[in-house]
Amino acid sequence: MAARALLLLLGGFGLFASAAKMKIVEEPNTFGLNNPFLPQTNRLLPKMAPSPTTGPAHLFRLAGKCFSFVESTYKYEFCPFHNVTQHEQTFRWNAYSGILGIWHEWEIHNNTFVGMWMREGDSCETKNRETKVLLLCGKSNKLAHVSEPRTCVYSLTFETPLACHPHSLLVYPTLTEALRRKWDEAEQSLYDELITEQGYKKLLKEIFEEAGLLRATEEKEIEKHSKKLKSLEFETAETCMKEYKQLSKEIKRLKDLLTQHGIGYERNSAENTSAEHIKLVTAKPSVLNGSKATEHLRGDTGIWNDTY
């Protein structure tokens, strides 16, 4: 009996010794977008595609590059015109690695680009994470500061020599000639007191949205799409008939004009429409309104987003 107890004791001691020699394998970290140890469903998956690259053209050279900043146990990565990510640098089995925002739109104050808004990041309670990246003059391209002024709303400071020239971040020079004229007209209307300061700001916001510098609200996008579809259809049968009569009248006028100048035509039976499709079949040149007609006659087919 005593011998049996001794054997059990020795066996238990041997088991303990072998356990003491076991190597502890750390859980792989979740750094980066393409960690092969992480299941596909848990990798960083964006909710939306980044907005088109807009703003000062000299900043476009930052596209495709990423800049890192390490604070405490977190590594932040800012990829201009793409996204902002955060990676927890610990070996916990559930270390956080996620998207703090995807390139969305500019923040504009006083005719100046002051920052880039990254929105629609990972879910955070009842909303999505978002980040504002402030642009400051610096000797080199680098992330200089990171903070979280409100829960799940982050603020990054990015320094770059591309922002050092006094006019480097002005909005007006980045606009098309047509949008500049709209801005000039808005300025004149404000000066003539034809619109209020609030009305002026509203006009500027519309100009910036048209330029792609600001993203229109979802409601505006839906309204714009609905108007576009509505313009392609007739509201009533009466409106449709009225349009048909106008087209028929125009076709008759064109036929009379062709006949007057000795240009033959025939109906194209392959065209399955209620209006006649005119096809010229003669190559005789003629004088039409002082110019030669060829063998075919055809028609030509900031203040906004200041969250904190």
TrEMBL record:
Keywords: Coiled coil, Disulfide bond, Signal. Residues 64-166 form the MRH domain. It comes from the Eukaryota. Residues 171-275 form the DMAP1-binding domain. Gene3D superfamilies: Mannose-6-phosphate receptor binding domain. It holds the Pfam family PRKCSH. GO terms for cellular component: Golgi apparatus. InterPro entries: DMAP1-bd, Gtb1-like, Man6P_isomerase_rcpt-bd_dom_sf, MRH_dom, OS9-like_dom. The keyword Coiled coil applies. Residues 1-19 form the signal peptide. Residues 215-257 form a coiled coil. This is N-acetylglucosamine-1-phosphate transferase subunit gamma. It comes from Pelusios castaneus (West African mud turtle). The lineage of its organism: Eukaryota, Metazoa, Chordata, Craniata, Vertebrata.
